[in-house]
Amino acid sequence: MTLFGLIRKLEKLSRSIVTQLRYRRNLGGFCRSIVMQLRYRNLHAGLFYLGRGSQIDVGPNANIHFGRGVNFTRDFSGVFYGNVTFGDRVWFNRGCYVSVHGGLSIGDYSMFGEGASIHDENHVIGSSSEPLPLRGFVVKPITIGKNVWVGAKATILQGVHIGDNAVIGANAVVTHDIPANTIVGGIPARIIRELRVAE
Ligand SMILES: CC(C)(COP(=O)(O)OP(=O)(O)OC[C@H]1O[C@@H](n2cnc3c(N)ncnc32)[C@H](O)[C@@H]1OP(=O)(O)O)[C@@H](O)C(=O)NCCC(=O)NCCS
C-alpha cells in the first residue's frame, strides 16, 4: 500500500470513529427523551433530543406538547408545571433554564442561545407576615412566536408576547411585549431596529 493509500485509509477510519461517537451521543439524547415519555403521561411528543446533564421536571397537572425535532442541548433545566407547547424544531442551546407554572407557547423554528432563561412566575412580593418562600407565585403566561431568535443569556419575564421573527439581543431582559420583525436589546429590552420582511 502506498503512503497516500495509507493516509486515505486512516482518514476514512478516523471519520467513521467520529461518526460513531456522534451517533452514540445522539443515541443517548434520544434515549433520555424516550425515558421521559415513558415516565410522564402528560408529556405528548415525538422523538426529541435531550442532551447530557439536562433535567426536565414535569408537574402532575402539566400538559406538555412538543412538535417534531425539538432539541434541548446539554445542561437544559426545565420546570414544567403548566401548559407547555413547543412547535417544530424549537432549539435550546446549552444551559437554558425554563420555568413554567402557568403557560408557555413557542412557535416553530424558534432558537435560544446559551444560558437564555424564561420565567412565567414571580414570587408574591410586598409586606406580609408570611415568609416569602411560602407565599406561592403570581403567574402570567408567555407566548413566543415562530422563527424567533433569543440571544445568549437573555431573560424573558412573565406575561410577555414576542412576535414572529423577532430577535432578542444577548443579555436582554424582556419585560414588555415585543412586536414581530424587530430586533431588541438591553434592560429592559427596547427596539434597536425593525427587520424588513420579504414579500
Ligand atoms: C441583537 C443583535 C442580533 C444585533 O445585531 P446587529 O443587527 O448586527 O446590530 P449592531 O451590532 O449593528 O448594533 C446596533 C446597535 O444595537 C446595539 N446592540 C447590539 N446588540 C445589543 C445587545 N445585545 N444589547 C443591547 N444593545 C445591543 C449596538 O451597540 C448598536 O448600538 P449603537 O447604534 O448605539 O452603536 C446582536 O448584537 C446580538 O445580541 N446577538 C446575539 C448573539 C448570541 O447570543 N449568539 C448566540 C448564538 S445561539
What do these coordinates show?
This protein has 199 residues and is α/β, with parallel strands linked by helices. The chain has one domain: Hexapeptide repeat proteins (UDP N-Acetylglucosamine Acyltransferase, domain 1, 3 Solenoid), CATH 2.160.10. The chain is 19% helix and 33% strand. It has one helix and 22 strands. It has one helix spanning 3-39, and strands at 43-44, 49-50, 55-58, 63-66, 71-72, 77-80, 83-86, 91-92, 97-100, 103-106, 111-112, 117-119, 121-123, 137-139, 142-144, 149-150, 155-156, 161-162, 167-168, 173-174, 182-185, 190-194. The strands form four sheets. Strands 2-5-8-11-16-19-21-22 form an eight-stranded mixed beta sheet. Strands 1-4-7-10-15-18 form a six-stranded parallel beta sheet, with no helix packed on it. A hairpin with a 4-residue loop joins strand 21 (182-185) and strand 22 (190-194). The termini are far apart. The model has no long low-confidence stretch (mean pLDDT 91). The site of coenzyme A has 13 residues, from strand 21.
From the N-terminal CA to the C-terminal CA, the straight-line distance is 58 Å
* Number of helices, where a helix is a run of at least 4 consecutive DSSP H or I residues: 1
- According to DSSP, the number of beta strands is 22
What's the CATH topology name? UDP N-Acetylglucosamine Acyltransferase, domain 1
